[in-house]
Amino acid sequence: MQDAAVWTLLPLVAVAAAAGTGALMEVRPGGRAPRPEPASRRGAPPVVYANPITCGRDRREHRVSDAAFHQGQGIGNYAALCGHVVAPLPMAEPSGPPCHECLSASRVAVTGMRRP
User: φ and ψ at 104, to 5 degrees?
Assistant: First the structure.
């Protein structure tokens, strides 16, 4: 009965009981809660989703995480994975050479994988 009360009081969030954490999670527009993280993924390093954005100051293509992109939207400057503050060029401009520090920060070594 307690679970039913939680669902009634919090229609926009779901309790992550399946994950065993009891943490609140956002429900997606389709009405489904996000799937709990598989046991095989729990010890792995976090995945960083980063977008390439060319900076107008140094003309290099830096990687900006989704979280940093959302934090800087009101300001227009974004913190890259390398620590550089990116002042983006217009999307019509061609991409600059990649920032090697951002590339090394965004790569995750996958162990146990065999190459064909």
Answer: -70, -30
pLDDT in tens, 40-77: 666 666 667 789 999 999 999 999 999 999 999 989 99
- Based on the fold, state whether residues 19 and 61 are members of the same structural domain: no
**Number of structural domains found in the chain:** 2
Full residue range of the structural domain in which residue 58 is found: 50-106
DSSP result, the chain: -HHHHHHHH-TTEEE-TTTTS--EEEPPTTS-PPPPPPGGGTTSPPP--EEEEEBTTT--EEEEEHHHHHHTTTTT-EE-TTSPEE-BPPTTSPP-PBPHHHHHHH--PPTTPPP-
* Structure token pair of residue 64: 């900006």
Cα distances (angstroms) measured from residue 57 to each of 40, 61, 89: 42, 11, 9
Q: Could you tell me the pTM of the whole model?
A: 0.54
